[in-house]
Amino acid sequence: MRGTIRKITIPRRLVADLMHASIRVPFVSLARPLNIRNLIEVRAQLQRPPGWAAIFVKAFALVAQDEPALRTLYVKWPYARLYELPRSIAMVTIARVEDGQDCVLLQKVNAPDEAPLTEVDAELRHAKEAPVDEVPAFRKMLLATRLPLLVRRLLWWIGLNWARQRANYFGSFGVTSVAAFGPGELYALGPGPFVLSYGVVKPDQTVDVILRWDHRITDAALMARALTRLEQVLNTEISGELRAIRQQTEPKSVRAVAT
After folding, report:
1. In what helix (H) or strand (E) does residue 67 lie, and over which residues does it extend?
2. What is the CB neighbour count within 10 angstroms for residue 40?
3. Total Cβ atoms within 10 A of residue 59
4. Helices (H), the chain
5. 145: which residues sit within 8 A by CB, 6+ positions away?
6. CA atoms of 152 and 133, how far apart (whole Å)
7. Mean pLDDT over residues 61-74, rounded?
8. pLDDT band at residue 254, thresholds of 50, 70 and 90?
9. Mean pLDDT across the stretch 11-29?
10. What pLDDT digit, counting tens, does each position of 184-228 carry?
11. CA–CA dist 187, 63 (Å, integer)
12. Is 250 helix (H, G, I), strand (E, B) or coil?
């Protein structure tokens, strides 16, 4: 049978580079349904609620404030060691259609725990809707992906093994999901030490969350505590911020003045 040879597009080449960089990360996974009843009830009261990606990005960063291991990288050069970051940097998978083809690109969000949820959401919406050339992270990523293979491999090696640069280029954790396209469990790969994916909200007001991590950094006990804390943060800190947004945006009642 004769097939058709098709050129690998730049976005597909980027995914190939990401998989090459991720292949040697010893990922271990922990999946758990989180009860987010309080969050769902508050979010439903907003006319334009923040997206779930922004919510999970900020929530995980808040958990990482008190868990330094969740802000730690494993680097190999000039010798194997752990490198703790002062703050979290999220890498969020953005699904787009470019030149008629589905693709995914990565948007970096610096210190999401220190920013209002509305700003995190606006940054992700901009990455989803704006032209690729208007998103700096996309522009740099695709520019590097156009370089020859040997040059790309060298740049990726430097980015992955130079501790400070690794945080800048690959972040401290990633967030991805296919919930917008229906239910399903996504066990994603990435060069970063932590990858969080979430599913659709179920009728019992739970959401399945999968947390994958580099086993060289920490063990399952800490990840189990992190998921428990994540559930608390979603129902308390994040819900509280959504209530504040609702109070700021809902019209104030006007009292009638008797004449």
Report:
1. none
2. 16
3. 27
4. 10-22, 37-43, 52-65, 117-129, 136-145, 149-161, 163-170, 220-233, 239-249
5. 10, 11, 13, 14, 17, 152
6. 20
7. 96
8. very low
9. 92
10. 888 998 898 999 999 999 999 999 999 999 999 999 999 999 999
11. 21
12. coil
* Cα 131 off chain centre by: 20
Token pair of 257 as six digits: 């003045």
- Give the type of residue at 190: G
* CA atoms lying within 13 Å on the CB side of residue 152: 19
- Cα–Cα distance between 175 and 56 in angstroms, integer? 8
Average pLDDT over every residue of 119-136 = 95
**Residue 78, preceding bond cis, omega within 30 degrees?**
yes
DSSP for 15-43 reads HHHHHHHHTT--EEEEEEEEE-HHHHHHH
> Nearest-CA neighbor of 186 among 203, 211, 206, 223?
211
CA nearest to 74, candidates 83, 65, 62, 86: 83
The residues that bridge with 85 in the sheet, in sequence order, are none
Q: Please give the radius of gyration of the chain, using alpha carbons only, rounded to the nearest integer.
A: 20
Structure-token pair, residue 103: 């693709």
Name the region of 67 (left: φ>0; alpha: ψ -120 to 50; beta: rest): beta
Which residue's structure tokens are 């976005």?
11
3-state secondary structure of 100: coil
Closest CA to 242 of 44, 64, 34: 44
